[in-house]
């Protein structure tokens, strides 16, 4: 579990890549420059850790491409103290970015193997979410609602109504919607029943699955 000068240098190159791809949010760039992404991957793949690409992890899931993590994080416009719901804890890398941005993070993972691994791993490297649960992301976390931001890190065939209803007025939901290819979609809650929708091009995610296994 070492983070060396070499790793730090590779991270700065990754940050430059993200700037060149259009990421502007200084907080997001700083978080990506700080978080040791190689620790979230199996040791045999360290060389891949700071390339701007997704990579397989346990339970047939992936650690998202850094650009995707940065893009979604930037869309959320997180401010310190914001209450954020994350659907799909996965490796915990996106969780760490949200925590670096000062969010109070509530995260749901439906793959038991990943949930067990990540809930032990994150505190070990100093990242403590408010709540990490094993559950169905389609249902959200009604007991903790409302949230200023909700981020979905898997491809959803449709937008789950519980997530829209758990958004605070003025809150932002970032969700990739679609089957094979997803359109990155932002919903801003303007009133009890009023939502503003924005679309930001195509991305590819592992599917968001209903019910737990």
UniProtKB/TrEMBL annotation:
Entry's localization field: Cytoplasm
Gene Ontology cellular component terms for the protein in this record: cytoplasm
PANTHER family given in the database record: PROTEIN-L-ISOASPARTATE O-METHYLTRANSFERASE, PROTEIN-L-ISOASPARTATE(D-ASPARTATE) O-METHYLTRANSFERASE
Gene that produces this protein: pcm
Xref: HAMAP family: PIMT
Keywords carried by this UniProt record: Cytoplasm, Methyltransferase, S-adenosyl-L-methionine, Transferase
Protein name: Protein-L-isoaspartate O-methyltransferase
Superkingdom classification of source: Bacteria
Function (record text): Catalyzes the methyl esterification of L-isoaspartyl residues in peptides and proteins that result from spontaneous decomposition of normal L-aspartyl and L-asparaginyl residues. It plays a role in the repair and/or degradation of damaged proteins.
EC number(s) reported in the record: 2.1.1.77
Key word Transferase present: yes
Class in the EC hierarchy, top level: transferase
A biological process from GO: methylation
